Protein backbone atom coordinates (compact mmCIF):
# COMPACT_ATOMS: atom_id res chain seq x y z
CA UNK A 1 0.00 0.00 0.00
CA UNK A 2 1.25 3.46 -0.78
CA UNK A 3 0.01 6.94 0.05
CA UNK A 4 2.47 9.42 -1.42
CA UNK A 5 -0.02 12.07 -2.42
CA UNK A 6 -1.44 14.43 0.22
CA UNK A 7 -3.33 17.60 -0.72
CA UNK A 8 -2.33 20.58 1.41
CA UNK A 9 -5.06 21.98 3.61
CA UNK A 10 -5.73 25.70 3.80
CA UNK A 11 -5.81 25.75 7.61
CA UNK A 12 -4.08 23.60 10.20
CA UNK A 13 -6.31 20.90 11.72
CA UNK A 14 -6.05 22.05 15.32
CA UNK A 15 -8.87 21.88 17.83
CA UNK A 16 -11.14 20.02 15.44
CA UNK A 17 -14.74 19.24 16.25
CA UNK A 18 -16.67 16.51 14.48
CA UNK A 19 -20.14 16.97 13.10
CA UNK A 20 -22.87 14.38 13.44
CA UNK A 21 -22.55 11.01 11.71
CA UNK A 22 -25.36 9.76 9.51
CA UNK A 23 -26.81 6.52 8.17
CA UNK A 24 -26.31 3.52 10.43
CA UNK A 25 -26.25 1.04 7.55
CA UNK A 26 -24.61 3.00 4.77
CA UNK A 27 -21.15 4.47 5.01
CA UNK A 28 -20.95 7.30 7.55
CA UNK A 29 -19.85 10.76 6.43
CA UNK A 30 -18.49 13.00 9.17
CA UNK A 31 -17.84 16.71 8.72
CA UNK A 32 -14.64 18.02 10.31
CA UNK A 33 -14.85 21.72 11.23
CA UNK A 34 -11.38 23.14 10.52
CA UNK A 35 -12.28 26.83 10.93
CA UNK A 36 -10.76 29.17 13.48
CA UNK A 37 -13.01 30.77 16.13
CA UNK A 38 -15.44 33.27 14.64
CA UNK A 39 -14.77 32.13 11.05
CA UNK A 40 -16.87 30.08 8.62
CA UNK A 41 -18.68 27.36 10.53
CA UNK A 42 -17.84 29.19 13.75
CA UNK A 43 -19.28 32.54 12.67
CA UNK A 44 -21.60 33.70 15.49
CA UNK A 45 -23.47 36.32 13.46
CA UNK A 46 -27.19 35.97 14.43
CA UNK A 47 -29.51 34.87 11.60
CA UNK A 48 -33.18 34.01 11.26
CA UNK A 49 -34.30 30.46 10.36
CA UNK A 50 -34.62 29.92 6.59
CA UNK A 51 -36.02 27.13 4.44
CA UNK A 52 -36.16 24.53 7.21
CA UNK A 53 -32.74 25.44 8.60
CA UNK A 54 -33.29 26.31 12.28
CA UNK A 55 -29.73 27.39 13.05
CA UNK A 56 -29.57 30.70 14.91
CA UNK A 57 -26.06 31.74 13.81
CA UNK A 58 -24.50 31.97 10.36
CA UNK A 59 -21.95 29.30 11.22
CA UNK A 60 -24.56 26.91 12.60
CA UNK A 61 -26.73 27.26 9.50
CA UNK A 62 -23.74 26.56 7.26
CA UNK A 63 -22.95 23.40 9.21
CA UNK A 64 -26.59 22.29 9.19
CA UNK A 65 -26.59 22.37 5.39
CA UNK A 66 -23.39 20.34 5.24
CA UNK A 67 -24.72 17.76 7.69
CA UNK A 68 -27.88 17.45 5.63
CA UNK A 69 -25.85 16.97 2.43
CA UNK A 70 -23.70 14.35 4.17
CA UNK A 71 -26.88 12.48 5.07
CA UNK A 72 -28.15 12.63 1.48
CA UNK A 73 -24.86 11.45 -0.02
CA UNK A 74 -24.47 8.62 2.52
CA UNK A 75 -27.70 7.04 1.30
CA UNK A 76 -26.13 6.45 -2.12
CA UNK A 77 -22.94 4.77 -0.89
CA UNK A 78 -22.35 1.07 -0.18
CA UNK A 79 -23.22 -0.31 3.23
CA UNK A 80 -20.63 -1.30 5.77
CA UNK A 81 -17.70 0.83 4.65
CA UNK A 82 -15.47 2.80 7.03
CA UNK A 83 -16.32 6.35 8.01
CA UNK A 84 -15.48 9.13 5.56
CA UNK A 85 -14.02 12.22 7.21
CA UNK A 86 -14.55 15.47 5.30
CA UNK A 87 -12.31 18.34 6.31
CA UNK A 88 -14.18 21.65 5.81
CA UNK A 89 -13.31 25.32 6.17
CA UNK A 90 -14.04 28.81 4.83
CA UNK A 91 -10.93 30.55 3.42
CA UNK A 92 -10.88 33.40 0.89
CA UNK A 93 -11.09 31.81 -2.57
CA UNK A 94 -10.52 33.44 -5.96
CA UNK A 95 -13.20 35.93 -6.96
CA UNK A 96 -14.00 39.24 -8.62
CA UNK A 97 -17.03 41.50 -8.69
CA UNK A 98 -18.58 39.41 -11.45
CA UNK A 99 -17.33 35.87 -10.80
CA UNK A 100 -16.23 33.67 -7.93
CA UNK A 101 -14.91 30.25 -7.01
CA UNK A 102 -17.73 29.04 -4.78
CA UNK A 103 -15.86 26.08 -3.35
CA UNK A 104 -13.31 23.38 -4.03
CA UNK A 105 -12.85 19.81 -2.85
CA UNK A 106 -10.90 16.70 -3.59
CA UNK A 107 -9.28 13.60 -2.19
CA UNK A 108 -6.79 14.16 0.61
CA UNK A 109 -4.76 11.15 -0.50
CA UNK A 110 -4.62 8.40 -3.11
CA UNK A 111 -3.88 4.69 -2.71
CA UNK A 112 -2.92 1.75 -4.90
CA UNK A 113 -2.48 -2.03 -4.52
CA UNK A 114 -4.61 -2.20 -1.36
CA UNK A 115 -6.68 -5.29 -0.44
CA UNK A 116 -9.56 -5.83 -2.92
CA UNK A 117 -8.24 -3.20 -5.36
CA UNK A 118 -10.02 -3.88 -8.69
CA UNK A 119 -6.89 -3.11 -10.74
CA UNK A 120 -3.25 -3.39 -9.69
CA UNK A 121 -0.89 -0.45 -10.00
CA UNK A 122 -3.79 2.03 -10.13
CA UNK A 123 -4.48 5.08 -7.97
CA UNK A 124 -7.82 5.45 -6.18
CA UNK A 125 -9.12 8.37 -4.12
CA UNK A 126 -8.87 7.61 -0.42
CA UNK A 127 -12.61 7.41 0.33
CA UNK A 128 -13.11 4.87 -2.45
CA UNK A 129 -9.94 2.97 -1.59
CA UNK A 130 -11.07 2.60 2.04
CA UNK A 131 -14.50 1.37 0.96
CA UNK A 132 -13.08 -1.19 -1.46
CA UNK A 133 -10.55 -2.37 1.14
CA UNK A 134 -13.21 -2.53 3.87
CA UNK A 135 -10.87 -0.68 6.22
CA UNK A 136 -9.47 2.78 6.92
CA UNK A 137 -6.10 2.46 5.21
CA UNK A 138 -4.46 5.24 7.21
CA UNK A 139 -6.13 4.02 10.44
CA UNK A 140 -8.12 7.19 10.92
CA UNK A 141 -5.16 9.57 11.04
CA UNK A 142 -6.25 11.77 8.10
CA UNK A 143 -9.51 12.98 6.55
CA UNK A 144 -10.44 11.38 3.24
CA UNK A 145 -11.73 14.60 1.67
CA UNK A 146 -10.68 18.25 1.89
CA UNK A 147 -13.30 20.92 1.11
CA UNK A 148 -13.16 24.73 1.13
CA UNK A 149 -15.83 27.41 0.62
CA UNK A 150 -15.56 31.07 -0.25
CA UNK A 151 -15.95 33.12 2.92
CA UNK A 152 -16.09 36.39 0.94
CA UNK A 153 -18.95 35.49 -1.39
CA UNK A 154 -21.33 38.42 -1.80
CA UNK A 155 -18.94 40.99 -0.36
CA UNK A 156 -17.67 43.90 -2.49
CA UNK A 157 -15.20 42.51 -5.03
CA UNK A 158 -16.50 38.93 -4.75
CA UNK A 159 -19.57 38.32 -6.89
CA UNK A 160 -21.06 41.45 -5.38
CA UNK A 161 -24.42 41.00 -3.69
CA UNK A 162 -24.74 37.26 -4.33
CA UNK A 163 -24.76 35.20 -1.13
CA UNK A 164 -25.19 31.53 -0.32
CA UNK A 165 -28.75 30.38 0.35
CA UNK A 166 -28.68 28.28 3.53
CA UNK A 167 -32.15 26.79 3.39
CA UNK A 168 -32.64 23.03 3.18
CA UNK A 169 -35.68 23.16 0.92
CA UNK A 170 -34.09 23.97 -2.45
CA UNK A 171 -36.05 27.21 -2.84
CA UNK A 172 -33.10 29.53 -3.35
CA UNK A 173 -34.01 33.12 -4.34
CA UNK A 174 -32.72 34.32 -7.71
CA UNK A 175 -29.97 36.49 -6.19
CA UNK A 176 -28.43 33.63 -4.20
CA UNK A 177 -26.41 30.44 -4.74
CA UNK A 178 -27.86 27.31 -3.19
CA UNK A 179 -25.19 26.13 -0.76
CA UNK A 180 -26.65 22.61 -0.69
CA UNK A 181 -26.07 22.22 -4.46
CA UNK A 182 -22.48 23.47 -4.10
CA UNK A 183 -21.90 20.96 -1.31
CA UNK A 184 -23.39 18.07 -3.29
CA UNK A 185 -21.00 18.97 -6.12
CA UNK A 186 -17.90 19.26 -3.94
CA UNK A 187 -18.53 16.06 -1.99
CA UNK A 188 -18.91 14.35 -5.38
CA UNK A 189 -15.37 15.44 -6.22
CA UNK A 190 -14.10 14.20 -2.89
CA UNK A 191 -15.68 10.80 -3.39
CA UNK A 192 -13.75 10.35 -6.63
CA UNK A 193 -15.26 12.50 -9.37
CA UNK A 194 -11.73 13.69 -10.02
CA UNK A 195 -9.27 12.75 -12.74
CA UNK A 196 -6.16 12.66 -10.42
CA UNK A 197 -3.83 12.35 -13.44
CA UNK A 198 -2.68 15.84 -14.38
CA UNK A 199 -4.52 17.35 -17.31
CA UNK A 200 -2.17 20.31 -17.59
CA UNK A 201 0.91 18.12 -18.11
CA UNK A 202 -0.52 14.65 -18.70
CA UNK A 203 1.73 13.34 -15.93
CA UNK A 204 0.69 10.54 -13.61
CA UNK A 205 1.12 10.55 -9.85
CA UNK A 206 4.44 9.06 -8.76
CA UNK A 207 5.19 7.19 -5.55
CA UNK A 208 8.72 8.59 -5.69
CA UNK A 209 9.99 5.78 -7.87
CA UNK A 210 7.35 5.00 -10.49
CA UNK A 211 4.30 6.79 -11.87
CA UNK A 212 0.99 4.95 -12.00
CA UNK A 213 -2.34 5.59 -13.77
CA UNK A 214 -5.46 6.66 -11.93
CA UNK A 215 -8.70 4.71 -12.18
CA UNK A 216 -10.24 7.51 -14.30
CA UNK A 217 -7.79 6.92 -17.15
CA UNK A 218 -9.33 3.66 -18.33
CA UNK A 219 -12.72 5.36 -18.87
CA UNK A 220 -11.49 8.56 -20.61
CA UNK A 221 -11.54 8.05 -24.37
CA UNK A 222 -10.36 10.62 -26.92
CA UNK A 223 -12.32 10.40 -30.15
CA UNK A 224 -9.55 12.13 -32.12
CA UNK A 225 -6.71 9.96 -30.84
CA UNK A 226 -8.84 6.82 -30.81
CA UNK A 227 -7.53 5.64 -27.46
CA UNK A 228 -8.07 6.00 -23.71
CA UNK A 229 -5.83 7.97 -21.39
CA UNK A 230 -4.62 4.64 -20.05
CA UNK A 231 -2.96 3.99 -23.42
CA UNK A 232 -1.58 7.50 -23.98
CA UNK A 233 1.76 9.15 -23.32
CA UNK A 234 1.98 12.23 -21.10
CA UNK A 235 2.08 14.44 -24.18
CA UNK A 236 -1.01 12.76 -25.65
CA UNK A 237 -2.95 13.19 -22.42
CA UNK A 238 -1.96 16.86 -22.27
CA UNK A 239 -3.26 17.36 -25.81
CA UNK A 240 -6.44 15.43 -25.07
CA UNK A 241 -7.23 17.67 -22.08
CA UNK A 242 -7.61 20.65 -24.45
CA UNK A 243 -9.42 18.82 -27.25
CA UNK A 244 -12.88 20.45 -26.99
CA UNK A 245 -15.83 18.07 -27.05
CA UNK A 246 -13.74 15.10 -28.10
CA UNK A 247 -12.97 13.48 -24.73
CA UNK A 248 -15.74 11.16 -23.58
CA UNK A 249 -16.46 8.89 -20.63
CA UNK A 250 -16.86 5.27 -21.74
CA UNK A 251 -17.83 3.67 -18.43
CA UNK A 252 -20.79 1.33 -18.81
CA UNK A 253 -22.97 2.86 -16.08
CA UNK A 254 -22.76 6.41 -17.44
CA UNK A 255 -23.25 5.34 -21.05
CA UNK A 256 -26.30 3.26 -20.17
CA UNK A 257 -27.77 6.24 -18.26
CA UNK A 258 -27.24 8.91 -20.93
CA UNK A 259 -30.57 8.29 -22.74
CA UNK A 260 -32.51 8.61 -19.48
CA UNK A 261 -30.81 11.84 -18.39
CA UNK A 262 -29.70 13.92 -21.37
CA UNK A 263 -32.09 15.36 -23.91
CA UNK A 264 -31.67 14.91 -27.64
CA UNK A 265 -30.77 18.08 -29.48
CA UNK A 266 -27.25 19.46 -29.95
CA UNK A 267 -26.96 22.94 -31.55
CA UNK A 268 -24.84 22.88 -34.71
CA UNK A 269 -23.77 24.87 -37.73
CA UNK A 270 -23.48 22.87 -40.94
CA UNK A 271 -21.54 24.43 -43.82
CA UNK A 272 -21.82 23.27 -47.43
CA UNK A 273 -19.92 24.49 -50.49
CA UNK A 274 -19.32 22.93 -53.90
CA UNK A 275 -16.25 25.09 -54.63
CA UNK A 276 -14.55 25.01 -51.22
CA UNK A 277 -14.56 21.49 -49.73
CA UNK A 278 -12.08 22.56 -47.02
CA UNK A 279 -14.77 24.51 -45.17
CA UNK A 280 -17.48 21.87 -45.48
CA UNK A 281 -18.49 20.20 -42.24
CA UNK A 282 -20.12 20.48 -38.83
CA UNK A 283 -19.05 23.38 -36.63
CA UNK A 284 -19.38 23.53 -32.84
CA UNK A 285 -21.46 26.49 -31.70
CA UNK A 286 -22.42 28.33 -28.56
CA UNK A 287 -26.09 29.25 -28.65
CA UNK A 288 -27.45 32.67 -27.69
CA UNK A 289 -29.60 33.15 -24.60
CA UNK A 290 -31.67 35.72 -26.53
CA UNK A 291 -33.81 35.38 -29.64
CA UNK A 292 -35.39 32.13 -30.86
CA UNK A 293 -33.78 28.74 -30.36
CA UNK A 294 -32.42 26.64 -33.20
CA UNK A 295 -35.44 24.34 -33.05
CA UNK A 296 -36.55 25.82 -36.38
CA UNK A 297 -33.98 24.92 -39.05
CA UNK A 298 -32.47 27.92 -40.87
CA UNK A 299 -30.78 27.29 -44.24
CA UNK A 300 -29.32 30.17 -46.25
CA UNK A 301 -26.09 31.44 -47.86
CA UNK A 302 -23.58 33.00 -45.46
CA UNK A 303 -22.79 36.67 -46.03
CA UNK A 304 -19.72 38.15 -44.36
CA UNK A 305 -19.83 41.66 -42.93
CA UNK A 306 -16.73 43.84 -43.40
CA UNK A 307 -17.42 47.30 -41.99
CA UNK A 308 -14.09 48.38 -40.48
CA UNK A 309 -11.30 50.46 -41.99
CA UNK A 310 -8.88 47.51 -41.94
CA UNK A 311 -10.96 45.82 -44.63
CA UNK A 312 -10.96 42.58 -42.65
CA UNK A 313 -13.28 43.05 -39.68
CA UNK A 314 -17.06 43.19 -39.45
CA UNK A 315 -18.23 44.30 -36.00
CA UNK A 316 -21.82 45.23 -36.94
CA UNK A 317 -21.95 47.64 -34.01
CA UNK A 318 -23.67 50.24 -36.21
CA UNK A 319 -26.58 49.83 -38.62
CA UNK A 320 -25.45 47.97 -41.75
CA UNK A 321 -25.60 49.96 -44.99
CA UNK A 322 -24.58 49.68 -48.63
CA UNK A 323 -22.85 46.48 -49.67
CA UNK A 324 -22.98 45.01 -46.18
CA UNK A 325 -26.73 45.43 -45.92
CA UNK A 326 -27.20 43.95 -49.39
CA UNK A 327 -24.89 41.03 -48.62
CA UNK A 328 -26.68 39.89 -45.44
CA UNK A 329 -30.26 40.38 -46.65
CA UNK A 330 -31.86 36.94 -46.83
CA UNK A 331 -28.60 35.36 -45.65
CA UNK A 332 -26.93 34.25 -42.42
CA UNK A 333 -24.64 37.11 -41.45
CA UNK A 334 -21.07 36.36 -40.35
CA UNK A 335 -19.78 39.07 -37.99
CA UNK A 336 -16.89 39.47 -35.59
CA UNK A 337 -17.01 39.55 -31.82
CA UNK A 338 -15.85 42.72 -30.10
CA UNK A 339 -16.55 46.38 -29.15
CA UNK A 340 -20.32 46.08 -28.61
CA UNK A 341 -22.81 43.63 -27.13
CA UNK A 342 -23.90 40.48 -28.94
CA UNK A 343 -27.48 41.72 -28.97
CA UNK A 344 -26.47 44.90 -30.84
CA UNK A 345 -24.68 42.94 -33.56
CA UNK A 346 -27.57 40.55 -34.04
CA UNK A 347 -30.18 43.30 -34.06
CA UNK A 348 -28.26 45.32 -36.66
CA UNK A 349 -27.97 42.24 -38.87
CA UNK A 350 -31.67 41.51 -38.38
CA UNK A 351 -32.59 45.08 -39.35
CA UNK A 352 -30.60 44.61 -42.57
CA UNK A 353 -32.64 41.52 -43.44
CA UNK A 354 -30.42 38.69 -42.13
CA UNK A 355 -32.21 35.43 -41.27
CA UNK A 356 -29.55 34.36 -38.76
CA UNK A 357 -26.18 35.43 -37.35
CA UNK A 358 -22.83 33.72 -36.77
CA UNK A 359 -20.45 35.56 -34.43
CA UNK A 360 -16.78 34.61 -34.91
CA UNK A 361 -14.82 34.81 -31.66
CA UNK A 362 -11.89 37.21 -31.32
CA UNK A 363 -9.89 35.13 -28.84
CA UNK A 364 -8.37 31.71 -29.33
CA UNK A 365 -9.70 28.58 -27.71
CA UNK A 366 -12.81 26.48 -27.57
CA UNK A 367 -15.39 25.12 -27.40
CA UNK A 368 -17.39 28.21 -28.33
CA UNK A 369 -19.22 29.70 -25.36
CA UNK A 370 -22.81 30.84 -25.47
CA UNK A 371 -23.86 34.47 -25.93
CA UNK A 372 -25.64 36.37 -23.18
CA UNK A 373 -27.89 39.40 -23.40
CA UNK A 374 -31.52 40.47 -23.50
CA UNK A 375 -33.49 42.01 -26.35
CA UNK A 376 -37.09 40.98 -26.85
CA UNK A 377 -37.12 42.49 -30.36
CA UNK A 378 -34.61 39.95 -31.73
CA UNK A 379 -36.47 37.39 -33.83
CA UNK A 380 -33.62 35.56 -35.62
CA UNK A 381 -31.33 32.85 -34.18
CA UNK A 382 -27.65 33.46 -33.55
CA UNK A 383 -24.63 31.37 -32.56
CA UNK A 384 -20.98 31.83 -31.71
CA UNK A 385 -18.09 29.92 -33.30
CA UNK A 386 -14.40 29.75 -32.43
CA UNK A 387 -11.70 32.07 -33.71
CA UNK A 388 -10.18 29.27 -35.79
CA UNK A 389 -13.50 28.30 -37.37
CA UNK A 390 -14.24 31.95 -38.06
CA UNK A 391 -10.88 32.35 -39.79
CA UNK A 392 -11.61 29.27 -41.91
CA UNK A 393 -14.89 30.73 -43.16
CA UNK A 394 -13.51 34.25 -43.63
CA UNK A 395 -10.66 32.94 -45.79
CA UNK A 396 -13.32 32.01 -48.34
CA UNK A 397 -15.96 34.66 -47.68
CA UNK A 398 -14.23 37.83 -48.76
CA UNK A 399 -17.36 39.92 -49.25
CA UNK A 400 -18.04 38.70 -52.77
CA UNK A 401 -21.74 37.98 -53.44
CA UNK A 402 -21.04 35.09 -55.80
CA UNK A 403 -18.85 33.33 -53.27
CA UNK A 404 -21.39 33.95 -50.54
CA UNK A 405 -24.06 32.23 -52.62
CA UNK A 406 -21.79 29.19 -52.93
CA UNK A 407 -21.34 28.84 -49.14
CA UNK A 408 -24.53 27.60 -47.50
CA UNK A 409 -25.07 27.52 -43.77
CA UNK A 410 -27.58 25.48 -41.80
CA UNK A 411 -28.35 26.47 -38.23
CA UNK A 412 -30.21 23.67 -36.49
CA UNK A 413 -30.46 21.30 -33.57
CA UNK A 414 -29.13 17.82 -34.25
CA UNK A 415 -31.96 15.75 -32.79
CA UNK A 416 -30.03 12.52 -33.30
CA UNK A 417 -27.39 13.49 -30.74
CA UNK A 418 -27.82 13.94 -27.00
CA UNK A 419 -26.86 17.37 -25.65
CA UNK A 420 -23.70 16.58 -23.71
CA UNK A 421 -22.76 13.36 -25.50
CA UNK A 422 -20.91 12.41 -28.67
CA UNK A 423 -22.53 10.80 -31.71
CA UNK A 424 -22.18 7.37 -30.06
CA UNK A 425 -24.08 8.53 -26.96
CA UNK A 426 -21.07 8.75 -24.63
CA UNK A 427 -20.99 11.60 -22.12
CA UNK A 428 -18.58 14.44 -22.91
CA UNK A 429 -15.99 15.58 -20.37
CA UNK A 430 -15.07 19.26 -20.04
CA UNK A 431 -11.96 19.97 -22.13
CA UNK A 432 -11.79 23.69 -22.96
CA UNK A 433 -8.79 25.18 -24.72
CA UNK A 434 -6.91 26.75 -23.01
CA UNK A 435 -6.77 24.43 -20.03
CA UNK A 436 -8.68 25.57 -16.95
CA UNK A 437 -7.05 24.47 -13.71
CA UNK A 438 -9.56 23.02 -11.30
CA UNK A 439 -12.23 22.62 -13.99
CA UNK A 440 -10.80 20.83 -17.03
CA UNK A 441 -11.26 17.07 -17.40
CA UNK A 442 -12.81 16.52 -13.93
CA UNK A 443 -16.30 17.72 -14.96
CA UNK A 444 -18.97 16.98 -17.52
CA UNK A 445 -19.10 19.35 -20.48
CA UNK A 446 -21.15 22.53 -20.18
CA UNK A 447 -23.18 21.68 -23.29
CA UNK A 448 -25.00 18.96 -21.35
CA UNK A 449 -28.77 19.30 -21.09
CA UNK A 450 -30.43 18.58 -18.85
CA UNK A 451 -27.86 20.47 -16.79
CA UNK A 452 -25.72 18.20 -14.61
CA UNK A 453 -24.50 18.57 -11.03
CA UNK A 454 -20.89 17.90 -12.02
CA UNK A 455 -20.51 20.62 -14.64
CA UNK A 456 -17.79 23.21 -13.85
CA UNK A 457 -20.30 26.00 -13.13
CA UNK A 458 -23.48 25.84 -11.09
CA UNK A 459 -26.81 26.08 -12.92
CA UNK A 460 -29.87 27.54 -11.25
CA UNK A 461 -32.18 24.78 -12.50
CA UNK A 462 -30.34 21.90 -10.80
CA UNK A 463 -32.57 19.79 -8.55
CA UNK A 464 -31.20 19.67 -5.01
CA UNK A 465 -29.81 16.37 -3.70
CA UNK A 466 -30.22 14.53 -7.03
CA UNK A 467 -27.25 12.45 -8.25
CA UNK A 468 -28.98 9.55 -10.00
CA UNK A 469 -30.84 9.00 -13.29
CA UNK A 470 -33.18 10.29 -14.62
CA UNK A 471 -32.07 13.57 -13.01
CA UNK A 472 -28.28 13.28 -13.05
CA UNK A 473 -25.17 11.32 -14.07
CA UNK A 474 -23.00 11.76 -10.96
CA UNK A 475 -23.58 8.43 -9.25
CA UNK A 476 -23.26 6.35 -12.46
CA UNK A 477 -19.73 7.71 -12.94
CA UNK A 478 -18.81 6.95 -9.33
CA UNK A 479 -20.13 3.44 -9.87
CA UNK A 480 -17.98 3.10 -12.99
CA UNK A 481 -14.83 3.82 -10.95
CA UNK A 482 -15.74 1.28 -8.25
CA UNK A 483 -18.34 2.62 -5.85
How would you summarize what this structure contains?
By secondary structure, this protein is an alpha/beta fold. It contains ten helices and 22 strands.
3D architecture notes:
This protein has helices at residues 58-74, 126-133, 179-191, 234-240, 252-261, 322-328, 342-351, 387-394, 401-406, 474-480; strands at 17-18, 29-33, 84-89, 103-107, 110-111, 124-125, 145-149, 163-165, 176-178, 205-206, 211-212, 220-222, 227-228, 247-249, 264-273, 281-284, 286-287, 298-304, 332-336, 356-360, 382-385, 407-418. The chain is an alpha/beta fold and 483 residues long. It folds into 3 domains: 17-194, no CATH class; 208-262 and 419-473, no CATH class; 264-418, Glucose Oxidase, domain 1 (3-Layer(bba) Sandwich), CATH 3.50.30. The strands form 6 sheets. It has an 8-stranded mixed sheet with strand order 16-15-22-18-19-20-21-17, sandwiched between helices. Strand 10 (205-206) and strand 11 (211-212) form a beta hairpin. The longest helix is centred in the N-terminal third of the chain and has 17 residues, at 58-74. It is globular.
Describe the SSE topology.
Layout (H helix, E strand, L loop, with lengths): L16 E2 L10 E5 L24 H17 L9 E6 L13 E5 L2 E2 L12 E2 H8 L11 E5 L13 E3 L10 E3 H13 L13 E2 L4 E2 L7 E3 L4 E2 L5 H7 L6 E3 L2 H10 L2 E10 L7 E4 L1 E2 L10 E7 L17 H7 L3 E5 L5 H10 L4 E5 L21 E4 L1 H8 L6 H6 E12 L55 H7 L3
Parallel strand pairs: 2-3, 3-7, 8-9, 18-19, 19-20, 20-21
Antiparallel strand pairs: 1-2, 4-7, 5-6, 10-11, 12-13, 12-14, 15-16, 15-22, 17-21, 18-22
Helix pairs in contact: 1-3, 5-10
Amino acid sequence: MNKPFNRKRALALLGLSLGCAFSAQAVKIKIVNADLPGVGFNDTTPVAPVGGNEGTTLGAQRMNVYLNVAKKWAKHLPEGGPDILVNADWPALTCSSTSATLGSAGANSVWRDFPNAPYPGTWYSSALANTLAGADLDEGTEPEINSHFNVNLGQPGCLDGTSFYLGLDGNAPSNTVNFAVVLMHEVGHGLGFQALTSGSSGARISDGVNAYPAQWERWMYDNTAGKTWLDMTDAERKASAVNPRNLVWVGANVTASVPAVLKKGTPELLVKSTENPAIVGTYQVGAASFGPTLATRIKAPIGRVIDQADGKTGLACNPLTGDNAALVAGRIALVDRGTCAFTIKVKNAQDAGAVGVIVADNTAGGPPAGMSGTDATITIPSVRITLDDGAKLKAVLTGDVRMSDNVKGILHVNKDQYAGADAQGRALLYTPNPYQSGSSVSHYDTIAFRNLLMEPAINSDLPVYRVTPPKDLTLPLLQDIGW
